[in-house]
Each structure stands twice: as C-alpha cells, then as structure tokens.
C-alpha cells in the first residue's frame, strides 16, 4: 500500500510552519514572544455582532444544518455591501456565495474549474493558497509579478505567447498579502481587457479591502464595466471585522464561476453555523464605525513600526494598505536568507516574523511583519531587534549601508 499520495507529493514543506513550531516551543518554555508572524487580528469583533451570535445561538432551532451557499439574508447583505462600497450590482441568488473564509472559497473554486495540466497564472510572492490551491487540483503554475505595473502586463503577454497549454486562470490579490502592493481601477481595467481578449478567468482576492491608508479607498475589479463576464472576487470578514476565527467569507461575480463553486461546496459542506451567519449579517448591515476605527489603529501601528524599527537600524518601507509590512532583510544580514534570519530573530530577539520564502521564491530576501500587536509591544519588538543587530556586530549605520 503506497503512502506516496499524488497531491501530497506536489506540496513542499511549509517553511512558515518551521517558525511557527519554534514560536510555540519558545512560549511553552515561558518565553515572552512578540508575535508579528501570523496575520491573526488581536482586536475583538464589534459588541453587537457578538450579541447577535449569542441571541441566535440561544434559539432551539438554530443548531441544525445550515445552507451551503449561505443563508439568503447574508447573501443579500453582501450584495448590499458591494452596492454601497463599490457601486456594483449583484444578484444574491446567482452572483453571491458564502464561503468558510476566502481561503476555502479559493481552494474549492480551484477544484471546481481546474483539470490536471491546466496552467494558472499566479503572483509570486503571494498568499500560499493562490498557488497551492491550484497545485493540489493538479494545475501547473506560471508565476507573474506582484507589482501592478508594466512588468506585470509584460509577463502576461509572454505567458500567453509561450505557455502550452494557454493559461486558463489568473489569480490576483490587492492589497497584496504579503507585499502590501495596491492596485488602482486603471490596472483592473487592463486586466479585464486582457482576460477577455485571451479568454482567461480572473480570481481577485480582496481580503484587505477595508485596510487602506491613502485617502482613496481600494477599488474592486468588479467596478470595471464587463468585469463580471470574466471575474469573481473573494472577500473576508476576518480582517474587516476582526472575525478571523469565525471563518466567514464570500465569492461574488461571474455566474458561471459562482455556480461551479456552489456545486462543489454542496458536496463538501453544509455551510457555516447559522448563528455565525446571522452575526455576519449584523456586522455588514450594522454600524460601520468599527471599520474606520480599525483602519486608523492599523495606520498608527504602521507608523510606530516603521519609525521604531528604523531607529533600531532596520529600514522598512511604509505600506499603503493591509495589516502587513513587507520588509527587506537588513543588508548586513541579507546573506542569512529569510528563513534563517526569521529563526535567529525568534531565538535571539523573541520576535516572530514570517520568512518571505514561504510566499514563493520571489519572497526570498524579505520577511512579512504583521501589525497584530499593540504599539507598546511593537516598540518593545524594535528594542529587541536593536539588541539582536548589535549582538551581530551591526550598528544602526552599518545595517543600512552594508551590502
């Protein structure tokens, strides 16, 4: 009996798990680890959302099987959000499906629309499900840049010209996890035009739609006229409302893709617990002041992190959106590589970050820093980092001039 399973063979070791295991072991030893590695919000959901969860959970008839594609009220709520936020009309019956977080939705859509040998265009570096959801489904990945610029579109042209078979799916995600790159509407217009010309489906990951720091809100690809002909978009309650553990997300857009995802899900799950779906309705339809409060909080944390780490000797670019900083390794220590640097930072500075190589080979030389600790802890992390750099014989000036 073989244990060499086909899909498992296609999955490399999850390098981020190495740092996670070290972090868990350090905490088990009683060490005070400042965890800036996992993008796990430290903020609570709005009180009225928790109250709605408790209210519905108290009903005797709320504990049976739910609806795999989401209760009607939640699908209508998400359609209402898209109309208010983006001016996009969605049919909640045919263009909206509720997912168990955007990660599940992306993975199940990959299963629904991918045949072994299909070629998928996916950003590198990127959130792992953007590539491995399709790898598990049997696809071949052709990497495209994360940066939404001319280089991105040059890579698309080369992919269509030289790849056999021709790519059938393109995955994009802005604000980007991990790089925090942002895209504007003009970028999406070019993506939609390219996809239509070459008959490519587009999967847009908009999980960080509400965590932006510029005056102009992040757009949706579905704002482009005709985008629903080729695109679906995934959003999540995890970051917007600090409901990561609730596993609530959505896919919206193209009817054919939504129908395919809905059908696959009907075989795999009965949907999220009904009280959670009811509470998600309360979040979307209720007061939105928490969204702005969280946005400003992440902005303050960003400013504190960038400023305090710079004083420690580590210059980090200031992200325009998301809850992450995409930080190049200090030049004097770049030779360590992102995984070894992350391990040393955990061991000697008690600060956990995510090695960039865990997001693809183009992530080597970077680490992802999540803004999921309060400002006091971020400053403490910077002091720890400064001591670590000094212990490596690197002072603040050397850290920036080396390499």
UniProtKB/TrEMBL annotation:
Coiled coil: none
Keyword Glycoprotein on entry: no
Domain Aminotransferase class I/classII large residue range list: 32-382
Cofactors that this protein relies on: pyridoxal 5'-phosphate
UniProt-listed NCBIfam families: PRK09148.1 (NF006604)
Enzyme class name: transferase
Family: Belongs to the class-I pyridoxal-phosphate-dependent aminotransferase family.
EC number(s) reported in the record: 2.6.1.-
Keywords, sorted A to Z: Aminotransferase, Transferase
Pfam families: Aminotran_1_2 (PF00155)
Species, as recorded: Sphingomonas oleivorans
Entry protein name: Aminotransferase
GO molecular function: pyridoxal phosphate binding; transaminase activity
């Amino acid at each position: 009996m073989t244990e060499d399973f086909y899909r498992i063979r296609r999955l490399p070791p999850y390098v981020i798990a190495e740092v996670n295991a070290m972090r868990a072991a350090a905490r088990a030893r009683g060490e005070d680890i400042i965890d800036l590695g996992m993008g796990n919000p430290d903020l609570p959901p709005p009180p009225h959302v928790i109250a709605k969860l408790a209210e519905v959970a108290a009903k005797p008839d709320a504990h049976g099987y739910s609806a795999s594609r989401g209760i009607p009220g939640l699908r209508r709520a998400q359609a209402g959000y898209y109309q208010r936020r983006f001016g996009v009309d969605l049919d909640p019956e045919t263009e909206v499906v509720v997912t168990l977080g955007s990660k599940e939705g992306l993975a199940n859509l990959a299963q629904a629309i991918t045949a072994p040998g299909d070629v998928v265009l996916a950003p590198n570096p990127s959130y792992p499900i953007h590539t491995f959801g399709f790898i598990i489904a049997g696809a071949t990945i052709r990497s495209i840049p994360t940066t939404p610029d001319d280089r991105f579109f040059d890579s698309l042209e080369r992919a269509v010209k030289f790849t056999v078979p021709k790519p059938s799916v393109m995955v994009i995600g802005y604000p980007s996890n991990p790089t925090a790159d942002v895209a504007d509407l003009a970028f999406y217009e070019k993506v939609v035009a390219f996809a239509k010309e070459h008959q490519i489906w587009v999967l847009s990951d908009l999980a960080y739609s509400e965590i932006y720091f510029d005056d102009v809100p992040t757009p949706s690809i579905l704002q482009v006229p005709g985008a629903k002909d080729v695109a679906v978009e995934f959003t999540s309650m995890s970051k917007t409302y600090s409901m990561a553990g609730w596993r609530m997300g959505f896919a919206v857009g193209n009817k054919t893709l939504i129908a395919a995802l809905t059908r696959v899900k009907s075989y795999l799950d009965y949907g999220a617990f009904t009280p959670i779906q009811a509470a998600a309705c309360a979040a979307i339809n209720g007061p939105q002041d928490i969204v702005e409060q969280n946005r400003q909080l992440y902005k303050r944390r960003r400013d504190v992190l960038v400023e305090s780490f710079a004083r420690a000797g580590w210059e980090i670019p200031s992200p325009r959106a998301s809850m992450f900083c995409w930080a190049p390794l200090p030049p004097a220590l770049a030779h360590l590589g992102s995984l070894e640097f992350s391990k040393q930072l955990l061991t000697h500075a008690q600060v956990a970050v995510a090695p960039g190589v865990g997001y693809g080979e183009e992530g080597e030389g970077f680490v992802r820093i999540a803004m999921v600790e309060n400002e006091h802890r971020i400053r403490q992390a910077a002091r720890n980092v400064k001591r670590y750099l000094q212990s490596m014989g690197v002072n603040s000036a050397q850290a920036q001039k080396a390499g």
